[in-house]
């Protein structure tokens, strides 16, 4: 086992990520055992086993790694195999929750590719009807695994409540992303677009991407629920959510699908992204009128018109400035958390790389 004090932060992140990846076969066995406990056929078992593996693999495991990384940072060499098991199980449970959200998100966004594979709902043997049901299956499986794996843990109720609370916040954030963005008046003023974008960052992204995994690590490590660092963690997580969402928005527009593993659809679906909110803020009336006439249309020519406006407004440069300022702000807040916070200072930022 690598001691924390002997490895640099990037190597430490890599080590925790490797431990998480190597635990996947064990986690799949746990999931399969749970499914087998119900009255289903061998064909159904094969279907659900494939649904888990198809959708669970291929990601960077940012969220799951943060669970392990936080726990290891706080416990140090006192992290026994018992703690490793809890952290690894919960790390994969967070990834499984993420999988449920992604399957649903792809249906809502009419996406084609996810993690270099065809989206689950577009697999010929699946279809939309089964995929919708599978989102509920994956979400429920998370809670069944937690209930069984942590049945003797004093943290069971706290962990279960945290998962359900964060799931609710994320679902409401998804509603803001898909429903509230349909209101054309939101994009009439910079204030309206920016306000909606900030709410999406906080609710749809920050809580389940950063707050959930890091708080899980704190709970496993035995940090008292009254500890002031929990409230500080929420503030830092919100900023990290803004950074992560801005990066995701930028990649949706500018990345090569061959590298990112998915086709961008934010312009076609009129998502309230960092790019759109910023364009409304810095553009003039002619820019905004052109954007309104072309955004939300599933046509390559319309998409290119919007991208040209983004480039004319120098959004790639503004993105670099915005994200650099955010990173400085995040680092400052993390440093205020204290010695344990400084042990974690590299974790969220390095885990994104």
UniProtKB/TrEMBL annotation:
Similarity comment: Belongs to the FPP/GGPP synthase family.
Recorded superkingdom: Eukaryota
Looking at the Swiss-Prot or TrEMBL record, what is one Pfam family this protein matches? polyprenyl_synt
Q: Which CDD domains match?
A: Trans_IPPS_HT
The name on file for this protein is: Farnesyl pyrophosphate synthetase, putative
Q: Which cofactor does it need?
A: Mg(2+)
What is a single molecular function from GO for this protein?
Answer: (2E,6E)-farnesyl diphosphate synthase activity
- Give an example GO biological process: farnesyl diphosphate biosynthetic process
Give GO cellular component annotations, separated by semicolons: cytoplasm
UniProt-listed PANTHER family: FARNESYL PYROPHOSPHATE SYNTHASE, FARNESYL-PYROPHOSPHATE SYNTHETASE
């Amino acid at each position: 086992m690598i001691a924390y004090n002997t490895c640099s932060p990037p190597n430490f992140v890599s080590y925790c990520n490797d431990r998480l990846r190597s635990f996947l076969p064990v986690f799949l066995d746990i999931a399969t055992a749970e499914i087998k406990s119900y009255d289903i056929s061998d064909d159904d078992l094969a279907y659900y086993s494939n649904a888990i593996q198809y959708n669970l693999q291929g990601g960077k495991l940012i969220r799951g790694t943060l669970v392990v990384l936080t726990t290891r940072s706080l416990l140090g060499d006192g992290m026994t195999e018992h703690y490793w098991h809890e952290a690894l199980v919960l790390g994969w449970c967070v990834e499984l929750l993420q999988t449920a959200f992604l399957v649903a998100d792809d249906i809502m966004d009419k996406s084609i590719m996810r993690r270099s594979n065809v989206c689950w709902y577009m697999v010929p043997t699946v279809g939309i009807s089964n995929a919708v049901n599978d989102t509920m299956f994956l979400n429920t499986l998370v809670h069944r695994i937690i209930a069984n794996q942590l049945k003797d843990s004093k943290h069971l109720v706290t962990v279960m409540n945290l998962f359900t609370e964060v799931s609710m916040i994320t679902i409401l954030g998804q509603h803001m992303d898909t429903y509230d963005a349909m209101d054309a008046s939101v994009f009439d003023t910079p204030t309206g677009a920016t306000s909606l974008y900030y709410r999406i960052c906080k609710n749809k992204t920050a809580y389940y991407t950063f707050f959930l995994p890091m708080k899980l690590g704190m709970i496993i490590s035995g940090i008292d629920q009254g500890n002031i660092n929990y409230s500080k963690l929420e503030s830092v997580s919100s900023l990290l959510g803004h950074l992560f969402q801005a990066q995701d928005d930028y990649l949706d527009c500018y990345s090569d699908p061959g590298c990112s593993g998915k086709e961008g659809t934010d312009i076609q679906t009129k998502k309230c992204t960092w790019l759109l909110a910023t364009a409304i803020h810095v553009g003039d009336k002619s820019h905004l009128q052109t954007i309104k006439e072309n955004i939300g249309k599933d046509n390559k020519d319309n998409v290119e018109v919007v991208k040209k406006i983004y480039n004319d407004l120098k959004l790639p440069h503004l993105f670099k400035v915005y994200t650099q300022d955010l990173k400085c702000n995040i680092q400052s807040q993390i440093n205020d958390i204290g010695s344990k916070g400084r042990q974690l200072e590299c974790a969220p930022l390095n885990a994104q790389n």
